[in-house]
Amino acid sequence: MEYAPARVFAYRENRNSKLSLLRCPLRVDGLSFEGASRTGPVTPGSQKILIVGPSWVGDMVMAQSLFIKLKILNPQVHLTLLAATRSYTLARCMPQVDELIELPFQAGQFAPLARWRWGRKLRQKSFQQAIVLPNSWKSAIIPWAAGIAQRSGWLGESRYGLLNDARKLDRKKYPRMVDRFVALALPENSELGEIPVPQLHYHAEDRQQALSDFNLNPDYAPVLALCPGSAFGSAKQWPAENFALLARHYIDQGWQVWLFGSAEDRAVSDRIRQGCPMVIDLVGRTTLPEALDLLSCATAVVSNDSGLMHVAAGLHRPLVAIYGSSDPGFTPPLSQQSRIVSLDLPCSPCFKRECPAGHLDCLRKVTVARVNESLGDLLQAHAPVI
Fold this sequence. Notes:
Layout: E1 22-28, E2 31-39, E3 48-52, H1 57-73, E4 78-83, H2 85-88, E5 99-102, H3 112-122, E6 129-132, H4 141-145, E7 150-154, E8 165-167, H5 177-183, H6 204-213, E9 223-227, H7 240-252, E10 256-259, H8 266-275, E11 280-281, H9 288-295, E12 300-304, H10 307-314, E13 319-322, E14 338-341, H11 361-364, H12 368-381
Parallel strand pairs: 3-4, 3-6, 4-5, 6-7, 7-8, 9-10, 9-12, 10-11, 12-13, 13-14
Antiparallel strand pairs: 1-2, 2-5
């Protein structure tokens, strides 16, 4: 998922925060990368945990539940997050993250020697524990090379040795991804207790700047945000024609409709604009932080199961989430202000990028009327506060 390049390389320090996110060069054993580092104060004697974060945007939002749980268990814990480029910017909206390091590796890049060198460089930070959220073998190399005493994660790709707290997954006990993340904050086989929900924080100054940059005014009419794309594939995308019909209905009711997505979603947004030229198309024009800031202005959001859907849930915007090939029981929106629309057909969830049967009934048979009804019920139940 590619968003527009960042317009600036340093985020302003929020006046209520001790942290800042800065673009800076990182050198690792002769390797130089343009990385990102955010550093907060370390309380003497506090526990230091390195977290290897997920690369997908939606997964990173759900990972915040783990960060919150760790802070509840030990308010003095110092959390350092290693994150891929496409997801690390979300951490500026997660006050639980004390230090942020951007990894330079491309999606799917193995690079074991470079990862080992990164780990060796991190030895000087003296972490007591690492929590590895991805299940891939390569994601466990850095904590192992860093010599961290306790390296926790799910066994995944047979990561014996790389992890010394490698846990076998009980899918019935931990049916949701967020359950599996939060379980790693606790000793093995512990009861999860209450699962904290993500709480993304936007900065008012950044939001106002984004509104100004795109000449938007959320005050003159309610805003329906539509997120019609999905980086995973077409088997998670409600038809563009249906999004256009829904947009036209709300514009006729006096709303404004904003489209969100990455550059990869432009073909979908073009089809929506053909059916409803009055929409405001932001697809491919915003950075991820700008999209987050603007989504925080939405009166309501309708989205496929995507990273932006989880961002909207983390912002606690009234949200209708449409599921096709994916499982709402595994990665639901973690917000009380949400409604799930899923037909629960015998062939779904199939977890395929493209419909293996070729009909895409799990999404094509979701009517505009059904989505509109869910949205109306949601707005009646939750008067939005912006």
